[in-house]
Amino acid sequence: MVDRSERETNDETADFYRVLFSRRDVRGQFLPDPVDPAALARILLAAHHAPSVGLSQPWNFILVRDRAVRTRVHQAFCEARAGEEALFEGKHRAAYRDLKLEGILDAPLNICVTCDRGRDGPVVLGRTRQPDTDLYSSACAVQNLWLAARAEGLGVGWVSIVEPARLVDILGLPEQVVPLAYLCIGHVAWFHERPELEVKGWRRRLPVAELVFSDTWGQSDGDDDLRAALAALADWPASAVAESSSWPPAS
Fold first, then answer.
1. DSSP secondary-structure letter at 18?
2. pTM for this structure?
3. Secondary element (H or E) of residue 60
4. Is-contact 185 37, C-beta < 8 A?
């Protein structure tokens, strides 16, 4: 066990939450500067240390730098975006049209996080009753990657408006491998203080107290102390983000 002072522990805790609350889905602020290989190595190692069902580690990370490949992905995105836009009506369609929803060609690096659904064979500890836990495990790797990138001062954007079959074709994925997340990563000019979709009025963050139930679905009686504690933390994320304007600290 590592013996740390209370101050060191408190500082580390504050740093963790600062990174967590300042993570953003980046789309339009990417800079062309290349990602440092040492930083990328730390980010990928952090992703690889995500929890996984049965320690199956079903993920792979495809680093996409070739502009021709990224151009094909961008074209697939544009086709999917046109289809999604048509599903909205009225003012929502106009608002959707004004949103920038990817940085595929702007970011110097794209990463496709995949899930190998055949890894470890047909019987995997912990997956026999919930077979999709390999997908959830790979999503945990995405979250680790995202937070590690933010700690390194890099932005990440998740491009979900693309047909998975197109990514399978473009990236040459084997039959049992699915593209779980297509990410854009790189240095950014700035980070939004709040999620961009919130800033632009598309959605707001729900109060967490509305999402917490007691014992059974919809039951919100009791837990008064917890709800009071949640109310007291209402301004915490914003204050942490304000402190993160120069994150990460200079070495």
1. H
2. 0.91
3. strand 59-64
4. no
> Is 90 exceeded by the pLDDT of residue 66?
yes
How far apart (Å, rounded) are the C-alpha atoms in residues 163 and 94?
Answer: 23
Task: Give the Cα separation of 12 and 202 in Å (integer).
Answer: 34
Choose among 141, 126, 163: nearest CA to 62: 141
User: Could you tell me how many helices (H) and strands (E) the chain has, helices first?
Assistant: 9, 4
Cβ neighbours of residue 71 under 8 Å, at least 6 residues apart? 105
Burial readout 73-96 (b: 16 or more C-beta within 10 A, e: otherwise):
bbebbeebbeeeeeeeeeeeeeeb
pLDDT at 3: 57
Residue 125: what residue type? L
CB 178 within 8 A of CB 147: no
Separation of alpha carbons 43 and 61, rounded Å? 11
What confidence tier does 251 reach under pLDDT thresholds 50, 70, 90?
A: very low
pLDDT at site 155: 97
Partnered with residue 245 across adjacent β-strands are: none
First-to-final CA distance of the chain? 27
> Poorest-confidence range of 14-18, 35-39, 40-44, 47-51?
14-18
10 Å Cβ neighbour count for 214? 11
Fold of 20-203: NADH Oxidase (3.40.109)
**At residue 41, what are phi and psi to the nearest 5 degrees?**
-60, -40
Is residue 51 within 8 A of residue 137, CB to CB? The reply is: yes
In this prediction, residues 45-67 reach a mean pLDDT of 97
pLDDT band at 242 (very low <50, low <70, confident <90, very high): confident
Is there a contact between 50 and 140 (Cβ–Cβ < 8 Å)? yes
